Amino acid sequence: MGWDEFWNLSNVKGSKILTLEFLSTLRITKEKIYFRVLNSEFDLPWDAFSTCLGFDIPNIKIEHATKHMNKKEFWYDITRENYEGWQPRTSQICSPTLLFLHQWIRLTLFPQDDIRIVREIDTRILFPIVHKIPISPVVEMAKHWIWASSQPRRWTIEFTFVVTKFCARLNLLNNFDRYITTPRVVLHKRFYI
Amino acid sequence: MKKVRGWGKSVLHQISLSSSDSSMQDARSQASREQVSSPQSQVNEEVVPVKVQEEETGIWLTPVEMEKLEELCDREFIHTKVISLDFSEA
């Protein structure tokens, strides 16, 4: 998928102050993403931002990659169940690998409280994964950041890795030490049993 | 403004280059730590909102961005959850 430089976030710490600056200044258009971090401005085309986060893929458009996707047929392919319109659950996915991938997608790309629900965007990312179509999900991720940052206060901001990873790959974090101090939640094997 | 396509892996190096690389100027950081008004910024003063420093965080923000920051300040920020790669661990 060309996600080799992105997927492993175990050593990427989150920073409240960097994320605050990032989210407060974040603006997106169809062509670009704009934000500031460490008081530096970034006005990047999506493919450049995608590469900065570790997605090494030229084709970044999920809508293009999923233009032949039939949602009901794909749901049947991965669950052997008919899509009935209710909230699909990750436990319905037959393949352990796909089930694991979905949970990783929900934890990492679109973190939310309940990772058991398979949302529309999840299937639109699983489809290219199953069919080995290179994509980068950064546009959809950015839409999620904007959506999540506008939610009520009880919603936790979990995607703090984004700005840290971006800065680290550009070597902007020399001498920076203002990371979140609470321990990271690590899901172990027992979580899946 | 020149469009930069086909970034590939060199994009990280390119963004890190000095601003002398004109092809990167549209994508690169444009106002690093420029809080002191320059002649150019004075020319654009009417269209570029003035940034002020938020006291608690020290972040420089426009009034609109400041409102967003105030909405976000009380939220809980946590490290992104990760899945242990040690599958032998129960």
SSE order and pairing:
The complex is a heterodimer of chains A (193) and B (90).
Chain A: H1 16-25, E1 27-28, E2 32-37, E3 40-45, H2 46-53, H3 62-65, H4 71-79, H5 96-109, H6 120-130, H7 138-149, H8 161-169, E4 186-187
Antiparallel strand pairs in A: 1-2, 2-3
Helix pairs in contact in A: 5-6
Chain B: H1 10-16, H2 39-43, E1 52-53, E2 60-61, H3 63-72, E3 82-83
Antiparallel strand pairs in B: 1-2
Structure, described:
Chain A has helices at residues 16-25, 46-53, 62-65, 71-79, 96-109, 120-130, 138-149, 161-169; strands at residues 27-28, 32-37, 40-45, 186-187. Chain A is mainly α. Chain A has a 3-stranded antiparallel sheet. In chain A, β1 (27-28) and β2 form a beta hairpin. Chain B has a domain at 48-74. Chain B has 3 helices and 3 strands; from the N terminus they run ααββαβ. Chain B has a two-stranded antiparallel sheet. The model of chain B is unreliable at 1-9 and 17-39 (pLDDT under 50). The chains are: A mainly alpha (193), B alpha+beta (90).
Q: Name the helicity range of chain B.
A: 10-25%
Please tally the helical runs of chain A, counting DSSP H or I stretches of 4 or more residues.
Answer: 8
Number of domains of chain A: 2
Q: Strand content of the residues of chain A, in percent?
A: 5-15%
State mean pLDDT of chain B (0 to 100 scale).
65
Largest sheet of chain B: 2 strands, antiparallel
Spatial extent as radius of gyration of chain B: 20 Å
Strand content of chain B: 5-15%
Low-confidence stretches of chain A: none
Could you tell me the number of beta strands of chain A? 4
Q: Helix coverage percent of residues of chain A? A: 25-40%
| Largest sheet descriptor of chain A | 3 strands, antiparallel
Mean pLDDT of chain A: 88
Radius of gyration of chain A: 17 Å
Strand order of the largest sheet of chain A: 1-2-3
The strand count of chain B comes to 3
Q: How do the helices and strands follow one another from N- to C-terminus of chain B?
A: HHEEHE
